[in-house]
Amino acid sequence: ATKIPFRLNQNQALLTFEDEEVAQRLIKMGKHTVNLDSKITDVHVKPFTLEMGIKFELHVTIFGKKINISGVPELPIAEDWMRDKLELNFYKSKQGGGGEVENVSYDRQSGTAVITFLRPGAANGFVRCTEYPFFMNGRCYRLSVSPNSCAHLEKFQPYCGISKKTILLKGIQETEDDEESVQDMIEIHFQKPSNNGGEIEKIKYVSKGVTCVCFEE
Q1: DSSP letters spanning 137-192
Q2: 62 and 148 co-located in one domain
Q3: Judgement on whether residues 105 and 26 belong to the same structural domain of the protein
Q4: Residue 25: its pLDDT value, please?
Q5: Residues 66 and 131 placed together within one structural domain of the fold
Q6: How far, in Å, are 20, 157, 217 from residue 160 at the CA level?
């Protein structure tokens, strides 16, 4: 599930309670009188709906016989010779694994290649090897190596993000206290059962400017 940002404006707060019933009870009450140390202020409790989010399953299959190569240097040699050089280089490999090569698919224009090994699992050792030395004409080049894989999405669906445990406080009056102190006073007020509150999982208060708050499923 993708993270959904919520725009929290100046003098607003978000409170997420452990118990869904507490949040819904406070929303029904609507208005609350909160003691912010030096002044009494009325705040409004609102429900809120996040923007549209997306859920999906990403399935990735990594092929244990193939690796992708990029950064193959462009040299004035025949393509067949370059394929032979790549095959020999990865056949003799000690850094990543390798072994007998079944096929080399090389594209001179893009500087890429796909190495297919004969033995299943021969490519697994290259997963942690992102760069690989390639010796050619007395020089050492660095090839980028990555697993050969295919990916597809399943169960792709939009959803509407509603947090039933979270409330939005509006109309919090500015005080001379710092933001952290005001946040603590709000938290103390809404944790008390005598104020129809309960245990708070998270709280975020903004006294100036705007901040984006992200929700996870």
Answers
A1: TTEEEEEEEEEEEEEEEEEEEEEE---TTEEEEE-PPP-SS-HHHHHHHHHHHHH-
A2: yes
A3: no
A4: 92
A5: yes
A6: 18, 10, 11
Last residue of a domain, one of 153, 174, 197: 153
Examine the domain organization and report whether 70 and 98 are in the same domain. Answer: yes
- Contact assessment for residue 122 and residue 99, using Cβ atoms and an 8 Å cutoff: yes
Domain termination site, one of 153, 177, 207: 153
Nearest to 17 by CA among 45, 56, 54, 55: 45
Please give the model's pTM, rounded to 2 decimal places: 0.54
What burial letters (b/e) apply to 31-52, b meaning 16+ CB within 10 Å? ebebebeeeeeebebeeeebee
What is the C-alpha separation between 22 and 7, in angstroms, rounded? 23
Q: What is the pLDDT of residue 187?
A: 92
Q: Based on the domain organization, do 48 and 85 belong to the same domain?
A: no
Q: What total of structural domains would you count in the chain?
A: 2
CA–CA distances in Å: residue 142 to residues 73, 96, 110, 151: 9, 14, 16, 27
The pLDDT score that the predictor gives to residue 107 is 93
On whether both 61 and 149 belong to a single domain, the answer is yes
Which residues of the chain fall below pLDDT 70?
Answer: 38, 92-98, 216-217
Structure tokens belonging to residue 18 = 């452990």
Q: Given this model, what pLDDT does residue 97 score?
A: 63
Q: What is 95-132 written as a DSSP string?
A: SS---SEEEEEEETTTTEEEEEESSTTTTGGGTT--EE
Q: Which two tokens stand for residue 48?
A: 């809120």
Q: Which domain holds residue 187?
A: 3-52+160-216
